[in-house]
Backbone:
């Protein structure tokens, strides 16, 4: 299991900031469909459970907030 983070460019507004998440490999990792960054905060952590793989897999996670999309990659290594 890994931990990833959503990082806003500034502080979340009143009511917080709901950031939509998605992955290109839902068969490999499980992520929430969204995370809420609390009012006055800029960072929210979330866990990324991974399913056992027979080989190394690169997974892309995309985050969208206020019309801006960013992405990152995560390496899931083979189970031994």
Residues:
């Amino acid at each position: 299991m890994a931990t990833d983070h959503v990082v806003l460019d500034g502080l979340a507004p009143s009511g917080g900031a709901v950031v939509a998440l998605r992955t290109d490999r839902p068969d490999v990792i499980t992520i929430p469909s969204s995370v809420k960054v609390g009012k006055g905060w800029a960072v929210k952590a979330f866990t990324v459970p991974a399913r056992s793989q027979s080989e190394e897999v690169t997974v892309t996670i995309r985050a969208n907030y206020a019309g801006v999309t960013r992405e990152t990659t995560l390496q899931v290594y083979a189970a031994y």
